[in-house]
Amino acid sequence: MLSKKAQYAIKALSYLVSRQSECPILISEIAEKKQIPLKFLENILLELRKAGILESKKGKGGGYLIKTNPEMTSLASVIRIIDGPIAMLPCVSLYFYERCESCDEEQCKINGLFVEARDAVLGVLEQKTLADLK
Question: Can you give the pTM of this predicted structure?
Answer without folding.
Answer: 0.88
